[in-house]
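Subject: mismatched residue count in predicted assembly?

I count 395 residues in my input, but I want to confirm that the predicted structure covers every chain. Input:
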Amino acid sequence: MSNKENYKKAFSVLKSSSDFTLEENRMEKMKREKINKNLLAAAAVLFVVVAGSGTAYAANLGGIRESVKLWVRGNKIDVSYEFNEGEGTYLKTYVDENGEEVQEDASMWHGDNSPVTMEELIEEEHDRVVVEKTDDGKCILYFQNKVIDITDKFTDGKCFIHVVGEEGEKYIEVKLDENGEIDAYTDGPKPFVDYVDKKGAHHYEHVELDENGNLSESTKEAYKRCFHKFIEAEE
Amino acid sequence: MRIPVQELVEMYKDNIYAAAFNICKSAADAEDVVQDTFLQYYMTKKEFDDEKHIRYWILRVAINKAKNIQSSFRRKNEMSLEDYVETLTFETPESRELFEEVMKLPEKYRVVIHLFYYEDYSVKEIAKILRTTESSVKVRLSRGRAKLKDALKEEWEDEQ
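Triage response: the counts match. Full output below for your records.
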């Protein structure tokens, strides 16, 4: 048997168990709900100036286009987005570091399957953390102007890192799966601390900040009393 | 042309599921992708050249949706991959081994391998679906094959 035949035989076990019936009534109902949400979103954003970028865009019910300057792999470049109202999808276009035009699907949906608005998409893209594994096995994290090699920053398959970008900061947790590949990553404004307890085990905990946005002194003192080492997450 | 959505579901439900599972590694998330993909087809006003064009379009939508789920924390993860594989009935132990080794590949190799070996797409077609270059597809295909050869030994034929 050829590789192709063996592959098909192996993967033919995957069968969808979805018993959803796409009867016309139900599909029409779902379609109406989705269109109504799109119309509301478009009507609410007739003319908006995106803060910080100084770029204005106008929405019309036929479609939305926008060009902004955004971070892509550490560089702030011109990126354009085009919304296809019929499909509820976004197409992202930019020129990469090799001078090649790249088009990517940038579609995003809320939990109820309605597409995000252009404003929400740009805000999300502006704030995006990307973690990628290169072909030579390095793990690279991108956040705004920061490009960080985090290959050696993993302990027990997890990396916790605080990144300060040009226009914001993130506390990021990256997890690897059992094969050393990127499993998931999450980011948020809540900081964490990395400390070692008396038995030498590493712990990571999200902590609250004081009114100045710093770890409170009492928190730091409490950790110092209880544990051998207190390490603030490094940038 | 348009194919009625109910007909399309019967034709390609399992293909979409397999492609989505390849990326998500989660049965629950893959099922979501199947439903979302056909709903999107139902809602689009797009006209297609032929059935091949439709298949290409729904696969591309499914792959993008699966990647979106993968990179967000909407993932469900109700059952681990290992537990799910236990529920599958493979024809031979070699099939199971091939399945498991493919699922261990990095996602960017796995997707290309799947589109090439399961969906019979050419390098050029895969590049269009994934919106990348043909040379990138060739490199990923080559590296994916090398890893499978390394893991499966004689069970995987050498290929150019």
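Residues 108 and 140 of chain B are 7 Å apart (CA to CA). Marking this ticket as 'not a bug'.
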